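Data availability (excerpt). All sequences and predicted token strings are deposited with the supplementary files. A representative entry, Large ribosomal subunit protein bL33c, is shown inline so that the format can be inspected without opening the archive.
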Amino acid sequence: MAKGKDVRVRVILECTSCVRNGVNKESPGISRYITQKNRHNTPSRLELRKFCPYCYKHTIHGEIKK
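Structure token line:
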């Protein structure tokens, strides 16, 4: 049987404050998390507050394209 569109999909969350400020001397990288979401319950882009080790604080991490 062929797999159709899965209900649960893997998404990548990226720190919005690191991306907005750009990768500069203060921030050596961009924080990213991998998680899953239910496509039917959450059709819009996912945003969660996660800890960013480069900003040293909890920031909003938004879903990005693969």
